[in-house]
Design goal:
This protein has about 350 residues and is mainly α. The protein has 11 helices and no strands. The protein has a domain of about 90 residues. Helices cover about 85% and strands about 0% of the residues. It is globular and about 65 Å long.
């Protein structure tokens, strides 16, 4: 039985090709100025966090510029307190870790050497040695890269200052984002653009505030637990655990791995207790903290989140990793509108 042949005709107009080329050109321009785009996006993130607080103060008859200045002063006070209370012990623990690192590395080297000798009778020692040499080369290169980037601190401070200035303007200036959109977007698309930006800001604000609260809770739990066990570098490990909460799914695993490895050199039994503590904290996070703290902040699919982190890291390094999730969160709002419109058009045709 011969099935009827189906022919598909695909027509691509010159106008469509031009539009695709324009989009690709704009994406290329964005990539070239990715540092500027990152600064602007960081500013929008800060606005998303602070705008509800500013709105709450202005509803209490506080002038907007005074409200923003009060928030900035509060942030400055909190930052100064963190510097005074945390920087000295963190610096001390980092110095201890740097001084102890050669010993740790020697122990790791010995373990790999013993492992290689053990497997030599099975003819696979060469692969282990090759893997170890690769690890050693990569770790050494990463360490050199970290120290070579110390000079970027000044650039980072300058970028932070610019972000704070832009954020201040966006918070103080009435309808600042709408004015910017009005100068960029054609008139017929303005109402939708206003609505879209408001929803993106709301979603980003909810997500970021929830992540900050979650990071602080994890920091406190890890610090108290490790300090109780007498673990070295408890403060550094707690800070790492809190910060890595911003990397979904992979972050807690990485933080736990670092803590267990460092603690293992202090005491294998303590390392086992640390592993149990991290598992318990992760269980509490998944079943108690996340459902209650993140209930209004809709999360992303795990696969999408991990792919976004990989792409962000490849395109823009650490800044790309930091901005990957909030950027994809913003794009998810646009994608949601697109698919909803497509469904509506399909339902009209039916």
């Amino acid at each position: 039985m011969n099935l009827p042949e189906k022919k598909f005709n695909i027509e691509i107009s010159t106008n469509s090709i031009i539009k695709v080329l324009i989009v690709l050109f704009l994406l290329w321009i964005v990539y070239l100025i990715k540092d500027v785009v990152a600064i602007l996006f960081f500013a929008v993130l800060l606005v998303s966090i602070l705008e509800p607080i500013v709105g709450s103060l202005t509803r209490r008859k506080v002038p907007k510029i005074i409200a923003v200045l009060l928030i900035y002063l509060l942030l400055l006070a909190v930052f100064s307190l963190i510097v005074v209370l945390l920087i000295p012990p963190v610096t001390d623990q980092i110095n201890q870790l740097i001084n102890s690192f050669p010993q740790y590395w020697a122990e790791i080297s010995q373990e790999f050497s013993d492992l290689s000798n053990f497997f030599s009778q099975y003819g696979i020692s060469q692969s282990i040695e090759t893997s170890f040499e690769f690890l050693k080369t990569q770790l050494g290169g990463s360490t050199d890269g970290i120290f070579s980037k110390v000079g970027n601190i000044v650039s980072g401070v300058a970028s932070l200052f610019i972000i704070l200035v832009i954020t201040f303007y966006l918070l103080v200036e009435e309808r600042a984002i709408k004015k910017i959109l009005k100068s960029l977007v054609p008139g017929e698309y303005l109402p939708y653009s206003y609505q879209l930006v408001n929803r993106i800001q709301e979603k980003l604000g909810l997500w970021l505030r929830a992540q900050l609260i979650l990071g602080l809770i994890i920091f406190a739990l890890v610090f108290i637990s490790l300090t109780t066990l007498g673990v070295k570098y408890a403060l550094i490990l707690a800070i790492i655990a809190g910060l890595l909460e911003f990397i979904p799914y992979l972050g807690p695993f990485i933080a736990g791995f670092i803590a267990v490895v460092l603690t293992f050199f202090q005491s294998p039994i303590t390392a086992l207790l640390v592993l149990i503590i991290y598992i318990l904290i992760q269980a509490a996070e998944n079943h108690i903290f996340v459902p209650n703290i993140m209930k209004r902040a809709v999360g992303l699919n795990p696969v999408i989140s991990i792919v976004a982190l990989l792409i962000g890291g490849k395109l823009a390094g650490l800044v790309g990793v930091i901005l990957a999730i909030p950027l994809v969160t913003a794009l998810s709002v646009v994608a949601e509108d697109f698919f909803n419109k497509k469904k509506q058009d399909e339902s009209k045709l039916e």
